[in-house]
Design a protein that fits this description.
The protein is an alpha/beta fold. The radius of gyration is 26 Å and the shape is elongated. It has 21 helices and 17 strands.
């Protein structure tokens, strides 16, 4: 028995070295942690249990039969984050550049299947050169097996991808399907074809960072939700994210008790929101004033800044927040904001996270670029997401709610449960200036003093139509509230909807306008 145990320990030590000490040192020289170091930093100390440590590839060609390394380029298993079960795979760049083989794929698929069966999140730490060319179609089949599980697990268990090195070719599609993607600045890249291929085919010269770095994917493509400073920072973001989301689609998000009083008044909101509807302000200041401990965990901060999404807590309960940002484009919705908001709303709905909407917008962004960019089809995605969602939906109109965007952003007509408005809010088909120009064009033109006449008509329109009392008289606004009481009112609404049960008509799935 002792000899057998000695042999076991020797093999375990060999497997834990991966590609060897020299390659580990090279990884460190690039400012990157190894696959195992990343797991140990992310998971609770001593909680990691490894699967398939002794798996090796099956390739018999190109001299590969003589070059087999235990684990075959990926470390898989399970452990806990703050005591909660997660499944994890960590690609090991020190072994064949982290390239995917058939055996590698089977290891990943095994833990993905277990995650779905047992109802726990899957976290993928990606650092790979792509498919292992020596294995040909078997490597491609491995990717397909993983993609299938990504899709079937979507909306069942949370899936988080961390890009900590190169991710190229077909390998990019697994992270693209997952719920949240975190990239590391200056050391992680995502692209279908690399700079060399692009130059050869198109003549374009571009660096890896310019083509598919963290900045590109957080500001331009919206592939990534976060850009971390380094490996350690990326893993801390995962830990933070995990605090707001449930284990699976059958559970509620984790509750965290707070000493922040539910009835805390915030009269400072009076000075944050200007009475002049044309003056900008930072909606994050309003959000920060009312959520537990003034902490808001923003997502996709650098993309479509005219809409804000992220997680917070109210009365200890996790909530997803969608908000217009008057500091950018006056908070108007454009096609990028619609895509960003729709994906987040659907995640919250899939995982039982109440949605709170802070609304201040003048409508959809006008312009040829918007129309040709697909504001109709992309705007419809946001419409679809809000209408489809069955989780508690609470909407607060802080100032402006104009046009079709009023309908889309959690209106009572889209099955919102509780709708509030501040006394200064304006709710109408369009803003008073535009409405008066259309309705009273002739009267203004024929007036002795057109400027005075227009001002008079704008005041009339605002008093008669563009105020919350008209909407409240129809039952579309449940309560016009004192801004200082926002926190209390939102917590009351969450408590009111705690046991909400609502479902959509039976169907295989809807046909969202993708």
């Amino acid at each position: 028995m002792q000899d057998s145990l000695k042999r076991l320990r020797e093999l375990e030590a060999e497997a834990e070295l991966g590609g060897g000490q020299k390659r580990i040192e090279k990884q460190h020289a690039q400012g990157k942690l190894t696959a195992r170091e990343r797991i140990n930093l992310l998971l609770d100390e001593g909680s990691f249990v490894e699967f398939d440590k002794f798996v090796v590839h099956r390739c018999q060609d190109f001299g590969m039969e003589k070059n087999k390394i235990l684990g075959d380029g990926v470390v898989t298993g399970y452990g806990t984050i703050n005591g909660r079960l997660v499944y994890i795979f960590s690609q090991d760049f020190t072994v064949f550049g982290g390239s995917l083989s058939g055996a590698f794929a089977k290891k990943v698929c095994k833990i993905m299947d277990l995650a779905t069966k047992t109802g726990a999140p899957v976290i993928g730490l990606n650092d790979s050169g792509g498919a292992r060319i020596q294995e040909g179609v078997e490597s491609l089949a491995g990717y397909a097996d993983i993609f299938l599980r990504n899709v079937l697990s979507s909306g069942v268990v949370p899936q988080i991808s961390v890009i900590m090195g190169p991710t190229a070719g077909g390998a990019v599609y697994s992270p693209a399907v997952t719920d949240f993607t975190i990239m590391v600045k200056n050391s992680s890249f995502m692209f279908i074809t690399g700079p060399d291929v692009i130059e050869a085919v198109t003549g374009e010269k571009i660096t890896k960072e310019e083509l598919g770095g963290a900045d590109v994917h957080t500001t331009k493509t919206q592939v990534a939700h976060f850009a971390a400073e380094n490996d350690e920072d990326a893993l801390m973001i995962v830990k933070e994210l995990m605090q707001f989301i449930p284990q699976n689609n059958m559970e509620d998000p984790p509750y965290q008790p707070t000493e922040d009083p539910a009835d805390r008044r915030e009269e400072s909101i009076y000075s944050i929101i200007p009475s002049d509807p044309n003056k900008p302000y930072n909606m994050k200041d309003v959000i920060g004033k009312v959520v537990d401990d003034n902490y808001f965990f923003e997502i996709q901060e650098s993309y479509a800044k005219n809409i804000i999404i992220g997680f917070a807590r109210l009365g200890g309960r996790s909530v997803g927040i969608v908000a217009n940002q008057p500091q950018f484009f006056a908070g108007a919705l454009d096609y990028k904001a619609a895509i960003k908001g729709a994906r987040f709303v659907r995640f919250c709905d899939a995982f039982n996270i109440p949605i709170i909407t802070f609304e201040d917008q003048p409508g959809y962004m006008p312009g040829v670029a918007q129309e040709h960019g697909g504001v109709i089809v992309h705007g419809a995605k946001l419409l679809y997401a809000f209408a489809e969602a069955t989780v508690p939906k609470i909407t607060l109109i802080t100032r402006k709610a104009y046009g079709g965007a009023y309908d889309v952003l959690g209106s009572k007509h889209f099955r919102a449960d509780v709708n509030y408005a501040y006394p200064i809010s304006e709710i109408a088909v369009m803003g008073p200036d535009g409405a008066v120009n259309i309705l009273f064009r002739r009267e203004i033109a024929e007036a002795e003093n057109p400027v005075e006449k227009k001002a008079e008509l704008v005041k009339m329109y605002r008093d008669k139509f563009a105020n919350p009392y008209v909407t409240a008289s129809l039952g579309y606004i449940d309560e016009i509230i004192d801004p200082a009481d926002t926190r209390l009112k939102l917590i009351q609404a969450l408590e009111l909807t705690r046991n909400k049960r609502e479902s959509n008509p039976p169907k295989k799935h809807g046909n969202i306008p993708l």
